[in-house]
Amino acid sequence: MKKKLSYLIICLTAALSFASCTDKSAAEPVQTETTTTQEPATEAPTTEDPSVFDEKAAEMVKSYLKAVVDDGSALSASKLMFPEAIATKSFPTEDIAREKLFSGMEMTNGVKIGEFKTDKCEQLTDSQLRDAEAYFEKYANVISGLPKIDYTVVNGREISVTAELKDSSGDTQDYSCTYVVVDMGDEGCKVITTTAGKLDGLAD
């Protein structure tokens, strides 16, 4: 069973890495003069106390991993990854979300998330916040039928975590990952399944 669990973790790692890529099945960018601006929430309590947002970032990553691993739901995962307009337009059903985000991954494999811990959590710089905005804007720009959208990111963390994966026989293995979690105001918090370094320069 250890070999099976190790194989599942390899598949999980590949799938979760793939999930951070831009939707390659989407149409070419559509030119439009219409711009939709997402304003930050008038009250954003997660941005006031750094320790509160640190905890929120960890909760978001855990929720994302549980959506993928425990629930086997790509649709639920997409809603944690993307603003509403992108999630609704690009991932309207479970089957489509699974094909686009986790193609080739066995979503119902009996593995569950066990112990979960934060290894490191660092605040994003202003430049990194702008890169995160650009990530979502560029993603939206290749989805046919969406207007040009200007997103606002008001806070963020790069967070490294280790989650225990447990299969149905009780065998366990640790899975470690580093993601970016951002506060998008009215859109809520979203998980970008890559590192801050890989977003570097997107806003240039």
What topology emerges from the helices and strands here?
Blueprint lengths: L1 H17 L16 E3 L12 H19 L5 H8 L2 H7 L3 H8 L10 E12 L2 H16 L6 E3 L4 E12 L5 E12 L5 E4 L3 H4 L5
Parallel strand pairs: 1-3
Antiparallel strand pairs: 2-4, 4-5, 5-6
Helix pairs in contact: 2-3, 3-5
Summarize the structure.
This protein is an alpha+beta fold. Helix content is 39%, strand content 23%.
Question: Could you explain the architecture of this structure?
Answer:
This protein has helices spanning 2-18, 50-68, 74-81, 84-90, 94-101, 126-141, 196-199, and strands at 35-37, 112-123, 148-150, 155-166, 172-183, 189-192. With 204 residues, the chain is α+β, with helices and mostly antiparallel strands. Strands 2-4-5-6 form a four-stranded antiparallel beta sheet. A two-stranded parallel ribbon has the order 1-3. A hairpin with a 5-residue loop joins strand 4 and strand 5 (172-183). Helix 2 (50-68) runs antiparallel to helix 3 and helix 3 (74-81) crosses helix 5.
Mean pLDDT: 82
Number of strands: 6
Q: Helicity, in percent?
A: 25-40%
Residue fraction in strands: 15-25%
Q: What is the overall number of helices?
A: 7
Q: Structural class, please?
A: alpha+beta
Low-confidence stretches: 21-46
